[in-house]
Fold this sequence. Notes:
Number of helices: 12
Order of helices and strands: HHHEEEEHEEEHHHHHEEHEEHEEEEH
Low-confidence stretches: 11-21, 132-137
Strand content: 15-25%
Strand order of the largest sheet: 6-5-15-14-13-12
Structural class: alpha+beta
Distance between the termini: 79 Å
Helix content: 25-40%
Radius of gyration: 23 Å
Amino acid sequence: MKNFLKIFAVVLLIALVYLRIEIYPQLDLISGFSAKSVASGHFIDNRSLETIQQGDNDIDKIDWATNKLDDKQKFVTSSVYGLKTRKAIYRQGLGATLINDEYDATKPYEVPKRNFIKNNLSFPYGEKEPKACLPNGMDTVFTNIDYAKLNTAIEHAFDKKGEKDKRTRSFIVIYKDKIIAEKYADGFDKNSKLLGWSMTKSITATYFGILQKQGKIDIMKPAPIAEWATDKRSKITLNDLLHMNSGLEWEENYGKISDVTKMLFIAEDMTKSQIDKPFVGNPNNSWNYSSGTTNLLSGILRKQFKTHQDYLDFWYSALIDKIGMNSMIVETDMAGNFVGSSYSWATTRDWAKFGLLYLHNGNWNGEQLFAPNWAKYVATPTNGSNGKYGAHFWLNANGDFPDLPRDFYRCSGYQGQMVAIFPSQDMVVVRMGLSEEFDFNGFLSDVIRSLKN
């Protein structure tokens, strides 16, 4: 009996040490992720707490958190077994923001001014529904499409009842500006706002193309970061940052306490998370995917404007509202910066509009938002990426997706969010869901094969 108690004591001690060293420091991140996820999903898309916990938050360790909603004061608190309570507040126009104990949630705040497009035009240039020619309401004007094959491909992208494998929430196919296929999982529809995660990066980069066309910025010049002015980092250009090729240190690991998790779930000002990082390589020769870089770019954008209000308004007036993404909201951090790396929400149709803007090389219904060669710029491989990455867009130049065209490029986000752009097919496909294991190569190739030669 004494030996058993000794062994038990040793095992208990080891378990407590493990929990203290390995698990306890992660609780801030776990409860922070949970609080932010619940606040955004509930207040932006009107999802119930149960739906969010069973869907968005059914992630290893995140499901440890207990969440409490306050609908009247619009905030969420989350904790893990009563420890490390975190709070996320919701503000109309700014979305949900994860805050710390020092943050004054009663202080006044500015919100973006919106200008929603209202006209009698059909998608994508207006909100008028397409003529219902099929039972599912899709357009059948094209004789070169095998609709039976297309609809079978879309059906296969969704789980059957009782399954939880593909976890697709929405799928839409746009061909020659027409919706030719569209489907939603139970509980979601064309009005559901869905989180794009890192697809937000492609949104952020686009503003540099817009400013460049307006003659207000030169992406080939050194990045305007005061902290870099007197050292070797002064050679880092905006072009390097847009290509994730600055040479700066950054760890993008969501499974542990890392640069990116500390930024998203602890930092007050996310635009500063990479500013103090040292070189671990050379600019334009050290590709390294970094959410810190994108939020640094958001901070650079803010400095292009005289006031914070101008910065907030620009994101919508220059792009989002301009192309009728009326549902979109980009969330801010505690310092009032747009979290350009990760936090934008929109309907599936509105995400498709962003893809169509690039498919049309920056021309939106006759207005040129960015120069036509900007689309080519973002889809040109950066050094060191092995053809995988351009300027805040992912590429297929190396054939990572062997059954898809090499000119296919995409916005891509956590859990398999994708806006897929197919220039040679005049097509945009959007998939939103909750699984990294989704077979994009197989499903997208099936969609393309529905086009008759």
